[in-house]
Amino acid sequence: LNKSGNDVSVINLSDGKNEAKISVGEGPHEVIISQQEEIAVVSNYGNSNKPGNSISIIDLKNQEVVKTIDLGEYMKPHGLAWLKEGDTFLVTAEAQQALLMIEIESATIIQVFTTQAKMSHMVAYSGQNNMAFTANMTDGTVTAIDIKEEKPIKVINTNEGAEGIAVSTDETEVWVSNREANSISIISIEKLEVVETLETAAFPIRISFSPDGKMAFISNAKDGSVSIYDAHKKRLMHTIPMEQKGKSDKNRIAGTISDGPVPIGIVVHPNAPFAFISNSNADIITVLDLEDMEVAGTIEGGQEPDGIGFYNPEK
Fold first, then answer.
1. Residue 252 CA: distances (Å) to CA of 84, 144, 219, 220, 280
2. Which residues are within 8 A (CB) of 191 and not within 5 positions of it... i.e. 6 or more apart?
3. Strand partners, 229
4. What value does the mean pLDDT take over residues 196-216?
5. What is the DSSP secondary structure assignment for residue 243, as one 8-state letter?
């Protein structure tokens, strides 16, 4: 997603070329992809002058927006997670301290949960536990929401600037990146409390796990790097610089974070040893070789790439 370009780049990984650009709403920030149904869901966050309140549904096969869901009073949609892939999803409404459950076919909000916290930005979902977790940036907390009981059950203190969030592959933990505190809080889902804290490089902003659950990837926006942790031993394995220069234009959104490349979005290839990192202030996607643990190359992105996902049309 290109949040300043208001569009989506479709990049063919066989040659690294952009094969399509799809216009969506203002300020697209996050995306989730359903492989089976061949659709992508995009949250249109808007900008500082005009908060967004819509979701774009993209037909990946035909590479076009087939539905736009109006969220009405719910503004600044951001974090996304599948509740039932291709059918129902969760999205944060940052301005209303809310988490919405949305059905794609009817294009309607079917449930609203309060997060009881300010600036609920990202969301992660554990199907095994039927629980959603929102990272609340202003309060430095995580809200645990019981989807079945339709209510928040605990607000957990993490640290300043709680933003990136992901459920571990075995669904026993929630990892949260605290961008102002330069730390990772690890929450036990069973106990609903922080059980361990890890130090990171400057401004950790997103978290993603490898498909086998062995590695956790953290993008450090101010440091211009990605840190890779052993997810089981809870120790730092590698920190890889993005090797890109940032744009000098201070009017760029990412430019308010750093004059470096500002890595944000992370996606790990499900079947090959590569990860892809969107560098929002460099308009570049960095390719990481996970065997050699180094930068393998770059792919041209759009204007301030942010949210990123992987889709296999031949699956």
1. 35, 33, 19, 18, 9
2. none
3. 216, 236
4. 97
5. -
